[in-house]
Specification:
heterodimer, A: 404 residues, alpha/beta, Rossmann fold, Coagulation Factor XIII, Chain A, domain 1, 6-stranded mixed β-sheet, 18 strands, elongated, B: 258 residues, mainly alpha, 13 helices, 77% helix, globular
Amino acid sequence: MTDPVQDNRAIVVEQMGKCFRLQRSGTRTVKSAVLDLVRNRGAGKNAFWALRDIDFSVGRGETLGIVGANGAGKSTLLSLLAGTKVPTTGRIRTSGTVSSLLELGAGFHPDLTGRENVFLAGAIMGLSRRQMRERFEAIVDFAGLRDFIDQPVKHYSSGMYVRLGFAVAVEVDPDILLIDEVLAVGDDNFQKKCLGKIDAFRRAGKTMLIISHDLPTIQSISDRILFLEEGRMAGLGDPHEVVGRYRASARARQAGGHEREWGTGEARIADVVFEDEAGRKTDTFSSGGLLRCRIRFQSQIRIEDPVFGFALADANARLVFGSNTQIEGFRIPAIEGEGEVVLILRDLPMGTGNYLFSFSLHSADHRTNYHRLDHCFSISVLSPSRFEGVCRIPCQWQLPPATT
Amino acid sequence: MVRWWREIFSKRELVWILIERNLKIRYKNSFLGFFWSLLGPLSLIAIYSIFLSLIRIPIALPTLVSGIIIWQFLAMCMGDALHSIVGNANLVTKAAFPRLILPLSMVGANAVNFLFSFAVLLAYLLAAGADFGPVLMLPVILLTQTALCLGMALMIGAANVFFRDTEHVLSVVMLAWFFLSPVIYGPELVMTSFPRWVHILFFLNPMSGILTAYRGALLSQQAAGFGLVALSFGVAWAIFLIGLGVFRAVEPRFGDEL
């Protein structure tokens, strides 16, 4: 399973990857297994890397949030940390007892009573009956199920199930608590209790890993956030920054339905690379800084006097600003084959948030649209100052001399 | 290896609770509950005694019912073994604990059940005035049978995770095994009419030696020499060790397959 860690880190994940071999259909039978062997599974067309090159550590007492789209590998990561799955490559080390809230109460047996299930769950986590007896009252109180504790759990509502599961998981007092999307269940009252418990856990110096789609909550309770995208680490660090990046990516993925691409295809905008002041490739910029877009194009024909345009919109695709080479009086005599044009925006006036770039390539008379990419490129902007609106307009406040 | 055992030992509480759970669930929702573990063998003995009084079969009732009750321990374990991992998928995929505990507690629950049946059998044999042999050997025989059951259960439980054909294969194997073992006949049937190498083959089946030893202790039947019985016991313990090895090797993959 997992090896202990010697320093003050609670979890160390090193170069870890998890590969699943997908089955063609249904459950395996001897026949299909033999066929697989005969077919020389080789590199494995059915191999699917759910996680790859995962490398991070969590300090003792730290709360790490995990965000990512569905299927990004969040839950797989948690089950690897819980020890129910084993990494294909690399390794995971943890120190202390791990309690997981992966699907609360999943280990409950429907025919057993709440009381019996509590003791079973405690034993799975390695507690003795005596230790469980000491905690039993607190568990029942926290779950608020005093009247139902001797009923078989099959008669419980799903809310009661989850409440009991959460109560057990937190009352067994683990060193590391893994929480998978439980902040989304239960009524407001119970959610408040959960958040309170999570906070108490934090103050008690426990280590927690939390998966949630509730971004504002996870942002506020995490010390750092890990962003998973298609099984790889797409970001790890400051909650605001990483959540911002996740939001940008999620938006870019769907662009809220604003993403569009069309054109004749005779010439194409092949790629756009964003760079900061120092020429580093990035998609996160600071307000007031410089943004450079390297627009790479490919043209199968010779186009005289082409016009490149761009537009910048906010996350809801509301236009902030747009212009083109024609308006700016920048004349390109002709293009043919591959090439690049560079767009520079200085003193970015936008506030913190995510923005969508559109690019276009069309003829000087606007009759022919060679290629348009609407809202296809997402960037985020971080601003130290807070203001209302999209852009900062330089402003100054004064008092008339007479009043001083 | 050492850590593996230490982990299992540290979760021994879980073994007890799961044994308890298995027993509770078996008789949950039934009116007579736990009495069934006594009523079952009792009615079995009654039915066979009526059957034997009606039909002429060359076997004594004590030999027959002891054979069937002892065989049932193995048969129940094998049937439950299929689901010992697959049926606990929710536990296996959600919580980390040594998976060996699942088949172990299943065999443990069946062993408890068997002890009740065995008590009924002993009571019957006492009432029937049976001629007891070296009864002090019974714990050793029981332990060997339990080891055999666990070894087989480990392999069957693990196999069923990867191949769902296991269930069908098992039902055929169990039927053949039943008739290859001296359950409804005594080993003397084989011992008196076949050459020596057949005897050895017959006692390579661990259940042959186990049943012979039980009947030696309970009924003073000396059907086979010590060597043949020891061979059977050796095979039983070998299956136990092989089962442990196989299970340990494939256990990490359970989480992915379920």
